[in-house]
Amino acid sequence: MNILVYWTQFEFNEWLVTLAATEKGLCYVGMADDSVERLKEWLKRSDTEGLIEDKTKLTVYISELKKYLSGTITNFPTVSLDLKGTLFQQQVWQALQQIPYGETRTYSNIAERIGNVSSVRAVASAIGKNPVLIVVPCHRVIAKDGSLSGYRDGKDCKQSLLQLEKTSWVSDRTE
What are the backbone angles phi and psi of residue 50, rounded to the nearest 5°? Predict the structure, then answer.
């Protein structure tokens, strides 16, 4: 079954956000300068029928992301998601959504949460493939030593999001 994907970009303060959604829900959020190209590459591996730029179809998502980026909301109450991934990736992404705003977890914590303590590297890989940054808060996952570790759209972006949430990735770390 082929599906249409609607996308747009918007700027808010220092952020340039690229988002895409299907009729089911948000399927992509990126914040890098090359996010549109990354979106197109990501869609080549999916069952999409086409990519259509349409800001009006994404109004609710834009509104909630702007509220989050301004510090007005801490979660996304009306955002529905259309996440495509393996069962393992889905489990990891679900665990990410359980990390409270303003807190961090380690890759080991996520592996424990999904009941597979020996899967830390696989967890890191699944987190790196999270297509919906911010809403599925992979920025809240840090290395065991308290360092930021990687982030699809760069460590500076991750650090900015953590600062936005007033998170100290060392002092708030949970082992």
Answer: -175, 165
Question: For 9-46, what is each residue's pLDDT tens digit?
Answer: 999 988 999 999 999 999 999 998 888 888 888 887 77
**Among 43, 138, 141, 164, which one carries the catalytic annotation?**
138
- Where do we find the tokens 């009306």? 78
User: CA-to-CA distance for 6 and 78, rounded, in angstroms?
Assistant: 18
Global pTM reads: 0.89
Tell me the C-alpha distance between 57 and 5, whole Å: 10
Tell me, yes or no, if 138 is annotated catalytic: yes
Task: Provide long-range contacts, Cβ within 8 A and 24+ apart, for 66-75.
Answer: 66/10, 66/12, 68/134, 69/12, 69/13, 69/15, 69/17, 69/164, 70/12, 70/13, 71/164, 74/101, 74/102, 74/165, 75/101
Cα 60 from Cα 68, distance rounded (Å): 12
DSSP tag of 21 = E
Which domains does the chain show, CATH number per domain? 3-69 (3.30.160), 87-164 (1.10.10.10)
